[in-house]
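Supplementary Methods, section 5.1.

A reviewer requested that the exact input to the structure prediction be made available. We therefore reproduce it here, unchanged from the version used in the analyses.
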Amino acid sequence: MSKTPQVLRKRSFRLGKRLATGLAVVGVTVALGGGSAGAETLTGWTGPTPFVGGNLYLHDSTITNDPRIIASSNIRTVNGVSVTKTYMGVMARLFKSGILCEATPYIYNYGPTPELTVASYQECGGGSYNSHGFVRAWNGTAFNTYVTFPSNPLFTINGPTARGAVDEPEIAEKTLDDGRTIGSGAQAESEADLPDLMAA
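The structure derived from this sequence is encoded token-by-token as follows.
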């Protein structure tokens, strides 16, 4: 019988504080389209996984400049079947001119869902940006980790342009059946306030 994944608490409070800019809503991809002049969105090749815990997954990474530079990575089941909470994880990574600008912590699915997207909203000035993240899937005893194909570069002269505030999802902290807490950690004032599991 498969064990439930034990996702370790993120011990870096600095990363925990940055979760508010790295979360994405479970089962809903980041809104990448939309109406801004010169807006562009580029998605890398979609990669498959082998069977992991009885499921096949697809994953990819996307970069957009609408309404600002946003790098996101996504994992999803091939057949659209929902998987158990904390069975999928994503680390979004934003690169500028080939140098890492930001990597989010691994964020895991908050509840049953067929899809998980996590995004980075960090600003690193003008240059050539691309998205190239990691995804994880639970195999019954441990996580299998895969790197996504990188997106093509998206060039910006004056750096990310924040045409408006990006609305971040609010996720209420709750206690799981085994006593662990799960939540976004966005309101944590110290490391002791962080939940055991970071949720998207």
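The first strand starts at residue 41 and ends at 43. These observations are discussed further in the main text.
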